[in-house]
Amino acid sequence: MAKIKYYYDTETCRYERVKTSNFDIFLNAVGILFLCSIFGFGFSLIYDRYFPSAEEQRLANQVKVYQEALDKLEGEMSSIDEMMTVLQERDNDIYRVVLGAEPIAMEVRRAGTGGSKNLFEMLENGAVQEESIVTVEQKLKNLKRQMFIQTQSYDEVAKRALEKEDMLASMPAIQPVENKKMKRLASGYGMRIHPIYKVKKMHRGIDFSAKKGTPIYATGNGKVVKARKSNRGYGWHITIDHKYGYQTLYAHMSKFDVKVGEVVKRGQKIGEIGNTGSSTAPHLHYEVRYKKRAVNPIKYFTKDISPEQYAILLERASRETQSLGYSE
């Protein structure tokens, strides 16, 4: 029951009843409704913030599932990426170095790589599924690119390995005559006394003294590019091209067992020692040339002698003795 309100009238000196108008009732009702609306809106905001709706809860659960799946995929791709890095480093630091191939810059190998975005960040941008798929596809694309580069590199390494095997078989690597006791080396590479003029002159090979008819062997795989019979200079001599810039020359021979154009193997007999051309005694003058320049053949006896025997050869080759012949 509503309370009846009174006020004191000073003119009549008595209490008079307060009369409420319809306008006052309207204003009071509007004020009450306004306050209720404000309180209702505030409670709604609080509820929405701390008590998500069923649809929001469903979307949050879906995002969580997406995030867990993406995290798992990220972990797997990270493992693959780490493995790829190990393979790339091993390829650059071992395989390509051993086989003489230029390393591939890691910037080239790994260009365009990058991580994926967080799904909750993408949720705020309104692109959960689309961007997550795009970022994963981009990372997979980068991994495929790295794998393609690595495959190309391994193809090159395999080719180099075959070439390396052929090169090792082709390079001069044994003595051209049988010399187990290391006593047949008569004159080494360098300035030596000329056998005729008796003055020091550059000797571009080494001399092996032996009886006429002693077998001469090819020191590496190759092709005979010259088999010339001459009465001066090198005398009867053979030149073998071993590819990769290497050639060997065998001079002062008495017999040829091969002809021009013939392919020979390391250790194959190509002829016999003689005393032809500018020679003062039966011997073999042997030269190794790399890129058309004579080099010391003593450095290429690596296959058929021990370190101790090699030391003996080095000592004998260093003696400034008289050469047994001279070149053209």
Automatic annotation (TrEMBL):
Coiled coil: 56-90
Top-rank taxon: Bacteria
Transmembrane regions listed in the UniProt entry: 25-47
Residue ranges of every copy of the M23ase beta-sheet core domain listed in the record: 201-297
Keywords for the protein's UniProt record, in alphabetical order: Coiled coil, Membrane, Transmembrane, Transmembrane helix
SUPFAM superfamilies, A to Z: Duplicated hybrid motif
PANTHER family, per database record: LIPOPROTEIN NLPD, PEPTIDASE-RELATED
Annotated protein name in UniProt: M23 family metallopeptidase
